[in-house]
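Morning run. Coffee first, then this:
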Amino acid sequence: MSEYPAGGPPPQIPATRAPAPQSKPATTLRQRLAELRGPAVAPHPLDARALAALAANPGCKRRALLDGAGVDKAVLATALGSPAAFGQSQFAFVRGNAFEAKVKADGGTELLRLLVERLGGGAEAPDSAVVPDLTAAGPEGRAARTALALREATEAGGWALLDHPMLALEVAGSPAYLEPDAVVVHPDGTWTVVEIKSFPMIDSSADAAKVGAAARQSAVYVLALERIAAKTEGARVGHRILLVCPKDFSNLPTASVVDVRKQRAVTSRQLTRLTRVEDIAAALPEGTTFDPGCSPEELGTAVDTVPAAYAPECLAACELAFHCRAKARAEGAVESLGRSVRGELGGLTTVAGVLSAAAGKEGDAADPTVAALRRAAALRAEALAGVDGGVPCR
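And here it is:
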């Protein structure tokens, strides 16, 4: 007789499983960046000027993180006791806005005349151009509206002037929103960036340093436009931008064409070298914040947890440069002497180590850097000995 009841074997009772432990929801990058700058602090926008400076120093994780998180570095530097000593004066700001308004008056007639005169190849300047409305809610909305206006203007095949369009560009895994002065769409589908500056152009020539800064800034706009042009049939981004400045010492506009292909290539290469913001943020201690409401000691500790790549060139481009310089000098780092010097010194990373190697107290004599330092020290000692002994230097 079977030991099973009628109907076959007994039903299998499923084993009771222990409930799976609930994992803590992962913090999104946006939440993490909000915690870094302070929950009640609005993000500081990353403009093309700051982005160009960031691309010029891709090894600085400190700037990449602070800019990506939207931290206002000027406020942070002031809280640390090392305020930035540069910036545009209010007078220059007002003068620049007045000049830009003059250039764009009457639907941009003068601006288009200058553009055709410099880039038109003998064509006649148009009497008018379409000026699309780019207003939208938030930077994301404005960027989407700008992309749509660019596509519509290219498809229409006429002249269009986009006044202060909003462009989006991903930087170190975080979106950055950029606002050029103007972008002109040509009938043939070419998009030209227009930069309007208030520094003078005297005898058709402007300050080389200022023109270089404008070129680097415009190269960022070109990169952002290329993302949109890649999805727009018949569109092409011009690598020659139009720089508009006051003529001589007047308020009359004049223009010059600047080729930014070199700046675009360098900026693109440097941006790809930037460490992603989430990778830098993941390496920070728990609770790190740059909230300006914290004490200077807490902010100093937070800033020091992020590696920096200081160089004297930072003094003209970064609000935290004076703080970073003070730290570099206190540590005796050779970076405070400049990138070229740092590159020549190889494995010697401190000024004290360089002096010891030159004096023969440390270092391998077979090292070419150490040998060069000792030779230089010997020549210096010989020269000083000749001066002390009354022998004239040759």
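The CA atoms of residues 103 and 111 lie 6 Å apart. Good start to the day.
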